[in-house]
# Entry
Amino acid sequence: MTRPRTFFKGFLIGLSVFILLNILAAHLFSDCGLTALFGLGACADAISRLGFPFLFFEQGGFAYHSKLDPPVLFLDLLIGLGFAVFTGFFASKRKK
# Structure
């Protein structure tokens, strides 16, 4: 297998792991899990939170509030992209 193909596979694996970690964190950090995030939860005053490793979005609560922090979102995306590139390089070097 060629090195670009193994890099791409490693990159996709790293990106998938980061996305799954963000989904898991959203489920664990939100008051009623993912259902509250999509507005389908049975909780009346649930707070939905997004972000791993940094919290960049929060909304809900009894006194409703909504907060999106774009610099933290950008940093979170940068970390995810860096992790995916790292796993891609690791996969391409390991396949030799």
Observations:
- The chain has three helices and three strands.
- The first strand starts at residue 47 and ends at 50.
- The beta strands are 47-50, 57-60, 65-68.
